[in-house]
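ingest -> validate -> predict -> emit
validate: passed (alphabet ok, no gaps, 393 aa)
predict: started
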Amino acid sequence: MAEPFKILTLNSISSLGLDRFPADRYSVGPKVETPDAILVRSQDLHKTEIARNVKAIGRAGAGTNNIPVAEMTRRGVPVFNAPGANANAVKELVIAGLLLAARNIIPAAQFAMSLKGDDATLHKRVEEGKKDFVGTELPHQTLGIIGLGKVGSLVADAAIKLGMDVVGYDPHITVDAAWSLPSQVRKANSIEEVLKGSDYVTLHAPLIDSTRNLIDAKRLECFREGAILLNFARDGLVDDAAVVQALNSNRLRSYICDFPATALQGHAQVVALPHLGASTREAEDNCAIMVVDQVRNFLEQGNIANAVNFPDALLDREAPYRVAIANANVPNMLGQISTAMARAGLNIHDMLNKSKGEMAYTLVDVDSHVPDTLIAELAQIKGVLSVRYLPPL
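emit:
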């Protein structure tokens, strides 16, 4: 019987997910040595030495900016995430943020908490003070959404049901996301168009080099005076210092976010929550279940789904022996792989090759055992990043 796969868990991972690793085939825990895969939530792996025996990393969440994805790509190691698994939790917090801002709930609650005296005194002060917290209703207000993935689409649907007009922008929208987007959403042609036409703006973009400080001083000048900005996506999307200036000049009325920062601390027009977006039991369970299933499918079958640095590659296994190869997306790679297998006397039963940018991934099913010498030969082909041999479990 094959040695069990070893899974190192960093942070607390939902037991509903971890229980999906069969106990007879997996060793799972925070002290596992020489792991085949790592499961992580928020721990920063940029500061951690990742052992060469690691074949996959699973992030129990959507963002992967705490993982050295580029380095893993160079090693031929897929980095899995759980897109959409926490989308409902984030959507609900965004809607809560809209209401917090529209009705001035936080300052109103702080005012009420500060009151002292008997009931008659409190009643008098409430009636005198409540005029300072007059809000607005959401129907017929315009919500601008930057990023129309799973969360953005859910927020759009909820906002429409609240009577809001919705305008959205996403230059990289997927076919699946486009299908799930409510038809009432008006498509904008630029971020600036969204900002100029919205009373509320919510961000739902990933944090990558091109989106860092997406909302900066220049773009803040495009906002309607008195608009409200919400950020429950990533802290680096917003230039905090520029937002403070926009609040002080009344360009923005409020900034509602999930990311406390020194520049924002103590500002009366800022509501900063302690990164609660995915902090529900349901979201943690969903993320863990999704990423565990993906890591299992990769370790056991070589299949890939929802890896941020690899193409999706799903091949039903009909032959008993499988070779999985990660390689640079360059010409004649399949030819070299096929030739090496033919020289070794192996019959290729089925083959799948998928590419994503500069990365390619190949699954080859053969009818007989693959010798170690062939695996070593394949690993020496220029452009091959990793080779895995997957005999039957």
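The radius of gyration is 25 Å.
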